[in-house]
Amino acid sequence: MVGELRYREFRVPLGPGLHAYPDELIRQRVGHDGHPEYQIRWLILRRGDEGEGGSSQVDCKAEHILLWMSNDEIYANCHKMLGEDGQVIGPSQEITGEAGALDKSVLGEMETDVKSLIQRALRQLEECVGTIPPAPLLHTVHVLSAYASIEPLTGVFKDPRVLDLLMHMLSSPDYQIRWSAGRMIQALASHDAGTRTQILLSLSQQEAIEKHLDFDSRCALLALFAQATLSEHPMSFEGIQLPQVPGRLLFSLVKRYLHVTSLLDQLNDSAAEPGAQNNSGPEELSGERDRLELEFSMAMGTLISELVQAMRWDWALSRQRPLARSSCSIFQPQLAEAGPGLPPTRAQPSIRRSRRFRPRSEFASGNTYALYVRETLQAGMRVRMLDDYEEVSAGDEGEFRQSNNGMPPVQVLWESTGRTYWVHWHMLEILGFEEDIEDVVEANEYQGAVVSGALGVALPSWRWKPMTELYAVPYVLPEDEDAEESEHLTQAEWWELLFFIKKLDGPDHQEVLQILQENLDGEILDDEILAELAVPMELAQDLLLALPQRLDDSALRDLLNCRVYRKYGPEALAGHPAYPTLLEAQAQPQESAGAARVEGKEPPAQYPDTPLWRLLVDCGPPGRTFLDLERALSSEGPQETEIKPFLLQLQRQPQPFLILMQSLATPAANKPLHLTVLRILMQLVDFPEALLLPWHEAMDACMACLRSPDTDREVLQELIFFLHRLASVSRDYAVVLNQLGARDAISKALEKHLGKLELAQELRDMVFKCEKHAHLYRKLTTNILGGCIQMVLGQIEDHRRTHRPINIPFFDVFLRYLCQGSSMEVKEDKCWEKVEVSSNPHRASKLTDRNPKTYWESSGSAGSHYITLHMHQGILIRQLTLLVAGEDSSYMPARVVVFGGDSTNSLNTELNSVNVMPSASRVILLENLTRFWPIIQIRIKRCQQGGIDTRIRGLEVLGPKPTFWPVFREQLCRHTRLFYMVRAQAWSQDIAEDRRSLLHLSSRLNGALRQEQNFADRFLPDDEAAQALGKTCWEALVSPLVQNITSPDEDGISPLGWLLDQYLECREAAHNPQSRAAAFSSRVRRLTHLLVHVEPCEAPLPAAAAPRTKSRNRSHDWSSLATRGLPSSIVRNLTRCWQAVVEEQVNNFLTSHWRDDDFVPRYCEHFHNLQKSSSELFGPRAAFLLALQNGCAGGLLKLPFLKAAHVSEQFARHIDQRIQGSRIGGARGMEMLAQLQRCLETVLIFSGLEIATTFEHYYQHYMADRLLGVGSSWLEGAVLEQIGPCFPNRLPQQMLQSLSTSEELQRQFHVYQLQRLDQELLKLEDTEKKIQGGHETSDKEHKGEKAEEAEGAVVTNVVEEEEEEENEDLYYEGAMPEVSVLVLSPRCWPIASICHTLNPRTCLPSYLRGTLNRYSNFYSKSQSYPALEQGLKRRLQWTWLGRAELQFGDQTLHVSTVQMWLLLYLNDLQAVSVESLLALSGLSPDMLNQAITPLTSLRGPLDLREENDVPGGVLKIRDASEEPRPRRGNVWLIPPQVYLKAEDEEGRNLEKRRNLLNCLIVRILKAHGDKGLHIDQLVCRVLDAWQKGPCPPRGLVSSLGRGSACNSTDVLSCILHLLGKGTVRRHDDQPQMLSYAVPMTVMEPHTESLNPGSSGPNPPLTFHTLQIRSRGVPYASCTGTQSFSTFR
Question: 1135 and 1102 in contact (C-beta within 8 Å)?
Fold first, then answer.
């Protein structure tokens, strides 16, 4: 059938390719809050199932979810379901053509006919009791069936007499009457599911219906039920081995299930609209609903109890107490326990633990545990290390010594190292003093705690948790509990206990009620009062002591397995497990009876030593009961009255019976035992009471005996007799045998024994005829289990919506079994679909017959033999084993290779290769595969001794343990996701309509998360299930909410952004805790902490990550750094929102205050406040700190060029002022350092931005002035170390490096001078020796000497002139000044102009010129290399830069080089005019006036007098009598720092250059289209176009002045700017490739046109930031590299 998908535009994603669509309204009710709620059916469709080509036709049997929704939720998620009046539109009631064709009169006549036919059929049925039904009766029933198929007559058939008629017909011994009843039921049920369910419910609730139904009648009803529930719960348990449930138990489950669904419908109907319940008052309605809730809970508990027994979950699981899950947040992702990648934990023989101190596993977070340890630990206590930390390993013990405020803060004397070592608080486990420590033998639990602690609880350094419990996990905090309520059972616990009280019959029930009345002041207890009782804990303990002796075996297992017994039972209170008392509790009546026999002198029963006695001797009294039964059966002519009590006792305690049947699976050597057991079972079948025993639970043992190749023929024959008899008496067990595969087993037995087994063929035919019924039973088991799961999910949803507790008994038991699943292992044929072999396929079955004596033998060439396994879908092989035999000699495999593939044509992956030893019998080929392979092929590459063919004795495959958890997890996650996504959409709609409702989101979220946390702690058994629920809830509720509240509206403002803006605005006012701003801020903080408290699991970095370039031009990508730690879209959306808020805040601040004189301090304060706000809202998480930095960078991006240049200059100026101010020392100097540190933190935002180049330019200028005027200090290096990334060209770092190089040159120059001095002294000594020698020379020699002297006169004169220049200060008689030369490279030092050079010949005295000349010669020699003589030589050019110290009387004057020259010049003159100084020095008037101004101040030594005939005035030394200055000490006269202006002509020229470069980049990228260009090629093309033209025009370049120089750094800065604006884009697959994106539309104001002859604005480009440099000489025109030097 197909239906219409009416609301296909409204869909909710539930998973990959899976969506939910609202379909129709089912029913409505009044919710717990008094508002109407509507049950909507949501269709679950996969991608492609919504209809092809836009079709809206879908299968009506598609999977669906029934969800209760409020009016607001429907409006937010599917508003089309609301009518014009705001009410939900119900399903259209279409009237069929047949109904419309019936007239009222005709319909009335037909109703009369139906009533008369029912009466006639009842009368005819009573008349033919015991005889063959007459033809008139069959005709009457046939006519009734025809009437039943008419839908308008359905109401007539709801008459109670119809049910009586159907009951009589179904219980009739005649097959035709029963068949006619089935036809009539099918006709009635063909109209709708409601009618079908009503008929089934009415029939199933009839008393003793099972006694009247035979196998066929019961199967007819079961088939009807299967048809009714097939479309309701289309759930598949494919791959899961369901148990074999007989029809009798299935029918009981159906009755329970129908009863529960009926009560659930009544509960929903009782909460219908108030207008429909006008006849009853509110109190009566409330009482009726309470009664229905109690009845529903008891019925649901009974259904769960029977279902658990039918699924054999209570026997399959080990009898251990369920371990309580650790109470931790289910929303926090946890690292997996030690798995395949981790080594297994070894259990130590004993572990010491504390008796009174809490372990780390009991705390919600690591910070909370650290606080506990810090407050509890005392000196001298023993501690244990929980984590590996540097030199200390996990598990080491030591003694706590002390703690302080350092990091790490705890000092412990460790026994493993013999010395103290400092660790952190959260790494320690307190053992206490020696009296507090105990030894524990079982160390597994501790080892698991250490592993989980080391991996999960100990927080990594980047993972932050608030120190307070409120912000850590608010929903984990227990709610306030009333002291009086804590002394009583909760309603859920009491109803669970009441369930067992209602299980009691007759006197036992009255005795328990008597106990209740005695403890409740004799109050008369009816059902209404029982439901509302407040039972004290002491009374509950008394009841739990009294109940076990009064319950049967199955109910006792339920009691011992329920939560109330585990919590308040006597064994639980004593600290012992409850399960060992299972048989003891039931054995007490038998033991007391035996004791009474002894007292009565009755001799005890003696049992012979037989195999049966040895089998049952350990069963206690139940075993003795079975031995008595066997003795009674062995007596001649056993009486039914003697056998019946024993059978009734076995029904209560079936353990001996099950042990007896399971003994058939023992080895074949137990032939006497097997024959005895089969004889007893054969006799038991004849008793009706014995058919109620759980035969089906041990039928696997019969099949094992039937399949075993070693079973003796006599035993096999008796087994077939027994099974044939059992299947004949009850065909239900024939169905069970069919489900177990008995047909194939019987066929193999017949084949083995050549057909000589009596009744074997009859049994096989009987089993084969039940194939249809076996399919029905499997479908029914699936439907009942699926229906129960859906009801459980419905109760969970109702619990979420109403916040009312779940009071259903065994609800946690059912969930525990669903989460743990079946313990059965998948073996052999359950793992594969078929087995293929390379040759002799007729013998392939020998591989799987479990007989080691048979084998498959190949036939073919050596190395060509293989076995191919076609695996079932999804089976992961845990072990694949090959069975071989050494006796096969050369047929035995020697080398085996296993391949895997997706098909037989793609077996290319080698999984393993094994060399087989000659002595091997079992060869393990594969173990613990982590991937599913559809095809597994085993290739025998070589045989022993060079054999050709091979023999394989068997093949064993062990697969995974299939559980119900994957199915239940899928359903639980779907329902949870749909519920919370619908709710999130409704909450988002409220926030969209009123942003102020965002303040209530924290309490809403906290309530929902706390409810899920409490549910997981109460009902979910393990961490995997709890984590799955928590993850689904978080993703379904928080993710959509965060996405919606962070999405901007039409005004560009998101609700959360608005809230954060409000928080920042009222932050100052929130300091008053009594103000409304404080309450508002508290709500905002609670919301943000709740949204971000879930920490991500850090994703591993890819194995082959591309290395990051170390180029100085690369940019820092903050987003890439933050993305590595992002857990999901939640944090991404929150960080984007916070970044947008910060960007807007910074942009507003810059727009308003960029011209202020105190701009930088105020900006630093603003940034500091944003940092504090980020920490308050989100904690110090890396993602939000990066969002803060990106937001600040975004604000800077929006600044125009000149404003950004001004901002960068202001920061450079502020840093310069704070560095110079810190030299003052004292409190003022410390204050300057603090301001400097805050400014440096703010400046770090420039890193990676284009503005960093402009900032570097100004910082370089001011740093050069500081270094040359004041000198270097440690602070310069410290500042550069902190803000080094803000300098893309690293020019300031190179400046400091050049200073270090100059100091080294100065040391070398000192050695050079000493060497020259030694040489001069040596020459003097040689000259003196020559003078003292004789003048005995001949005239010829004398003439020859004169000739030689004449020839070398020119060269000698040149050398002498150079030496004279170097030595012109050697004869200076005064004290020689100390001169230090600084060699400044123009590559990193800003040199204002080449014209500001110093000529030592004209401007310096002789005692200074000699030192400079010697240094020039020294530098030339040190920089000359023989191999490079042909190249350009480096030379020095002296500048006026530098500083000096002059002695002026008792004062030490600190002056610049220009000031030094001026003062020294006045040593020889009384006065000098400024005009002559300008002419002599060649300096500019501004530079000279800048030097004169400090000298002529009150502290200076000079006076400047204005004279009419002398322009500029005359300088002279101030008289001593006129000196107002101090006579002693240091006087600083160095000219003050001159700060640049970004708005001057140079800045505008740089702006024009930047715009020209942008135009070139865009033009080149446009020419290359979408293909783009590599960034290196783009830089080269731009530089080439800049130098060669045609752009920029030559006239424009000349107008740019010094700004016309361009290098690769400038081009890269412009590329960064265009990338940030979106004009240029990177290619996703190749980030180094750039291409043109879209043109910009933002215009820059107040800029001239870049194109000559045109008017209008510049190209629409906005400034990011730009590098600005001043160069003295164009490098391209230099013939040699110039260096500049100065001296001190």
Answer: no
